[in-house]
């Protein structure tokens, strides 16, 4: 039999029992669509998180600290040595201080981050109201989080912008030259900006302010590589000096590992629906064989080979799987698109950025289409083999 004849007979046989075929197709569509929908949720969440982690030039930035060591310190000499590494583009410096901020009779404990221009650029630190601090040596600018103002009892942030604010800076012993804690009380700063963070009280001040308070060591430095491909080399060189390094690639690897597990778990849930569809397809083909035993016998009598009979039943299975698989992929994509539009619309209305929760890579969609065909072939093998074993003489004898 020619392939076109096999296709025609398969289509005709499926059309005869239209209701049964449609119900089987719906099962396949739901199975494939469920896998698509759930796994695409995993891909979308992974993409959403990793896009936030790797934004800007994060892959080129290396965070350097002294770790848990009480011996190794980050000093100007350290920075000079790191700057001499060929692959290093530039360095940003930060000193973390404890202390208090005071307005009138009100005071609150605050974490102070003393930073330079490079550190602010690498960390993408910006003021939501007002402007960012000037990091010049003579600058006395300061920006604070909203949490600081809430604790100080300031209700309207605009009323305090460009006003003077007092601070007590505490330099811990690990940052001083002689290993003793130093306190600089009542340092005057000009509040130039506010960050919309109401969870943690913190402030940014110029790096020189911390040095003037007695700090000689750095809490952290950020090293920018000339190219992302040089990050591993720079990290190894710095770690050989005794320092601890971190890069966004470490976080990204952990995130990808977590989401890989999540996608497998979601895929298993969707595969449960696919198993139900597979059983329905198997049941449809088995019943079809029982009803068509006579037809198979006649086909053999008029010259159909065992291969033709085998192909006839597997083609029916593949047709169901192909149509159901393609339809499931398309319906899954459409449904994901509609949900993404709905979520993005709600996000924009609430003042946030539009987000995409569901994301389907092209390769995954193609794999799902191929998977549905594979399921069709596997499901059709058993009924096809049973059909091949039908003996035409037994059918004629029964007649």
Structure, explained:
The chain has twelve helices and eleven strands. The chain has 399 residues and is of the alpha+beta class. The protein has two domains: 198 residues, no CATH class; 134 residues, no CATH class. A six-stranded mixed β-barrel has the order 2-4-9-6-8-7. The longest helix is centred in the C-terminal third of the chain and has 44 residues. It is elongated. The model has no long low-confidence stretch (mean pLDDT 84).
Outline the secondary-structure elements.
Elements: H1 3-16, H2 18-53, E1 61-65, H3 76-83, E2 88-103, E3 106-109, E4 111-115, H4 117-122, E5 129-130, E6 141-145, H5 146-152, E7 164-171, E8 182-195, E9 202-206, H6 207-212, E10 220-225, H7 231-240, E11 244-247, H8 248-291, H9 293-301, H10 306-349, H11 362-388, H12 392-398
Parallel strand pairs: 4-9, 6-8
Antiparallel strand pairs: 1-10, 1-11, 2-3, 2-4, 2-7, 2-10, 5-8, 6-9, 7-8
Features:
single chain, 399 residues, alpha+beta, six-stranded mixed beta barrel, 12 helices, 55% helix, elongated
Task: Please give the domain count.
Answer: 2
Derived from helix and strand composition plus strand pairing, the structural class reads alpha+beta
Instruction: Work out the radius of gyration.
Output: 34 Å
Low-confidence stretches: none
Strand content: 15-25%
Our count of helices gives 12
Largest sheet: 6 strands, mixed, barrel
SSE series:
HHEHEEEHEEHEEEHEHEHHHHH
